[in-house]
Amino acid sequence: MGKMPHLSLSRLAQSYGPLISLRLGTQLLVVGSSPAAATEILKTHDRILSARNVPHVAPAKSPKLNHLSLAWATECNDQWKYLRTICQTELFSSKAIKSQASLREKKVMEMVGFLGTKEGKVVGVGEVVFATVFNGLSNVFVSKDFISLENEGVGGGMKELVRGIMEVASAPNLDDFYPILGGFDLQNLRKKSMELVGRVCTMWEPIINDRRDRKGGDFSSQRDFLDVLIDNKFSNDQINNLLLSAQRAPRLGKSDPGRDANTPTIHTTSKNALKATEGAAEGVDLAGEAFVAHSGSTGITQKWASSNDKILIIESKPIVAQKLDLAPNFWSVGSSPAAATEILKTHDRILSARNVPHVAPAKSPKLNHLSLAWATECNDQWKYLRTICQTELFSSKAIKSQASLREKKVMEMVGFLGTKEGKVVEVGEVVFATVFNGLSNVFVSKDFINLEDEGVGGGMKELVRGIMEVASAPD
């Protein structure tokens, strides 16, 4: 089986078909490796095939704990159905997932903000992504971040702890192949597993006890999964078992002890995004893992570099705010948050009129009064248009209602990229198509670009680029 059993099983499936059986020691292993086989196992015959052999390293191997486990229960009794119902309702239902959308978005924005403060510095992107995913899960469960993005070696300790649990859990174990040896723990894997699990449980044990002590008090914060479990009279052992099963979601790769499985994807995305950037199309110096792009024509210099699991954040040097005389036209340029606030908020009414470029359709008097962006005066028609757009597109309620759509489009992109393993993919094209389809679905509930097409988004991208180039060309 080797160190990458999933790849070994995939190769065997290519030779022997989507449903095969293997003899591992005294144990019979049946492997389904196609969508049809997965549907048969997990949906059509899920009740018959729901029981599972519990590995010896799992705490649930103990009869005292097995009935508390959702993942490793040996039978589908009423206790197990009760656990499943709670998890389904509070974590995995459409309503629960939708209610968590703002939390996921908040954590992603925290990550983006943190990376923005590291301009010009080397950042372990793998560590930051892991911390973001882990904190997102921990906030769903116990409303608390376990990893601070500001710490040196972000997520390192927790990441190694989770990796340790996953490595012990997935290591080939003689006790599983030959159950008669189970009591001897010849490889010390169960001992290591219990030590690591104990360290994890130690972290949230004080949170559980504190929450129990405060249950009689007043709660102003939003309820989380821990509140639900305590309200349903779950013991600490039950809570530990459920949280342990759930916190393994950010699974880590074992292919390289110094790198997690997400990092190569981040590198590929960063490189392709750079190559897809119009300003960086020329002057890209690529040497192994390091490259620098220059876009001096726009007055902005951008620098990128990556090595192993590190990536150097973009260094951007914007043009200085200044006044410009362009022939008979006078331009004032504001390029700081304070200047933007003055222009767009404090004095927005005075500064809302704008010079309509001759290439804009709204330059025609017949069309100008229909335009939101290029109207020459703030009359009642313009206010009406603005109110509709504000209410239906840009209000907090509207943005929140679109969260599931945005997430759906991102997951479609991730699923599409997952089908392209080992193939060259134009990530810039795929990202453009995802963003464009997200917008088109908000407007007319329809995708305009098919991810499966050759040259994904190419035609539409060139069309949009053509409009932008014409609109921004000096005239």
From TrEMBL:
GO molecular function list: heme binding; iron ion binding; monooxygenase activity; oxidoreductase activity, acting on paired donors, with incorporation or reduction of molecular oxygen
Give the originating organism: Tetracentron sinense
SUPFAM superfamilies reported in the protein's UniProt record? Cytochrome P450 (SSF48264)
Where, by residue number, does the polypeptide cross the bilayer?
Answer: none
Matching PANTHER family: CYTOCHROME P450, CYTOCHROME P450, FAMILY 76, SUBFAMILY C, POLYPEPTIDE 5-RELATED
Q: What is this protein called?
A: Uncharacterized protein
Q: Which InterPro entries match?
A: Cyt_P450, Cyt_P450_sf
The record's annotation in Pfam families points to: p450 (PF00067)
Q: Per its UniProt record, what Gene3D superfamilies does this chain match?
A: Cytochrome P450
Q: Which family does it belong to?
A: Belongs to the cytochrome P450 family.
